[in-house]
From TrEMBL:
<keyword id="KW-0560">Oxidoreductase</keyword>
<dbReference type="InterPro" id="IPR002347">
    <property type="entry name" value="SDR_fam"/>
</dbReference>
<dbReference type="InterPro" id="IPR036291">
    <property type="entry name" value="NAD(P)-bd_dom_sf"/>
</dbReference>
<dbReference type="InterPro" id="IPR020904">
    <property type="entry name" value="Sc_DH/Rdtase_CS"/>
</dbReference>
<dbReference type="Pfam" id="PF13561">
    <property type="entry name" value="adh_short_C2"/>
</dbReference>
<dbReference type="GO" id="GO:0016616">
    <property type="term" value="F:oxidoreductase activity, acting on the CH-OH group of donors, NAD or NADP as acceptor"/>
</dbReference>
<protein>
    <submittedName>
        <fullName>SDR family oxidoreductase</fullName>
    </submittedName>
</protein>
<dbReference type="GO" id="GO:0030497">
    <property type="term" value="P:fatty acid elongation"/>
</dbReference>
<comment type="similarity">
    <text>Belongs to the short-chain dehydrogenases/reductases (SDR) family.</text>
</comment>
Length: 257
């Protein structure tokens, strides 16, 4: 494994143009081994192989439904087996990025949709963190980075309305409470809150809505996935050792507080 000393777990990283894939790429570029967990296991393995070969780091992809505890446990056991076999270094970071949006009005939100949005965005963050946290605590070092959203701070938006905002607000509360609980364990817990990002999940986007969004951003454009990924990997670095319970906004100035 050469100089690679830690593994990063990234959920929802198999989609092209997604923040997850950009984050996996960034971790690998910075010398981490990477494990991609995604609902599409075949694509996760394919992307992991490409990233591993491009950056000469160990990389694996596994199928997982982050909202299903049995599925998450199976993925954690699969990673543990690779670590035990010497194919991966110990897990040092978890980036909880998997998520889905809810671009429908509140009164059109069914209970089924509500439950699904909460399950993937909030419960998934809880389940994946709980699965991989013990190893990091045992090693006395770890970084957990959770994906929230500007929607959690200002309430809704073009692409994520009430259920999404509620789920992402739950992620912020989870992040702060867990950061406080872990204290001086050596494991930090932080969150990122992107605004508009040029990803593949901009459901309902049109040139007109894109132009309107850009006009509302002081920097004058949406973020790239790479810009978000760079903040996530910074929070996973030694340089961020004194940051925990922190929320870093990545919105080009569209929401200031």
């Amino acid at each position: 494994m050469g100089n690679v000393s830690r593994t990063a777990i990234i959920t929802g990283a198999a989609s092209p143009q997604g923040i997850g894939m950009a984050t996996a790429e960034r971790y690998a570029k910075e010398g981490w081994a990477v494990v991609i967990l995604d609902l599409d296991g075949a694509k996760a393995s394919e992307v992991a192989q490409e990233i591993g070969a491009a950056h000469n780091v160990p990389a694996f992809g596994f199928s997982v439904d982050v909202a299903d505890e049995n599925s998450v446990t199976a993925a954690q056991q699969a990673v543990k087996a690779e670590v035990s076999a010497g194919k991966l270094p110990a897990v040092g970071a978890v980036a909880n990025i998997a998520g889905i949006t809810s671009p429908v009005a509140f009164l059109d939100t069914t209970r089924e949709l509500w439950d699904k949005i909460i399950a993937v965005n909030a419960t998934g963050t809880y389940l994946v963190t709980k699965a991989f946290l013990p190893e990091m605590l045992e090693n006395g070092w770890g970084r957990i980075v959770n994906m929230s959203s500007v929607s959690a701070q200002r309430g809704g938006g073009v692409f994520g309305k009430v259920p999404y905002s509620a789920a992402k607000a739950a992620v912020l509360g989870f992040t702060k409470a867990l950061a406080r609980e872990l204290g001086d364990s050596g494991v930090t817990v932080n969150a990122v809150t992107p605004g508009a990002v040029d990803t593949n999940i901009r459901v309902g986007s049109t040139p007109e809505t894109e132009a309107a969004i850009a006009r509302d951003i002081p920097i004058g454009r949406t973020a790239t996935t790479e810009e978000v990924a760079s903040v996530i990997t910074f929070l996973s670095s030694e340089s961020a050792s004194y940051l925990t319970g922190t929320t870093l906004d990545i919105n080009g100035g569209s929401h200031m507080h």
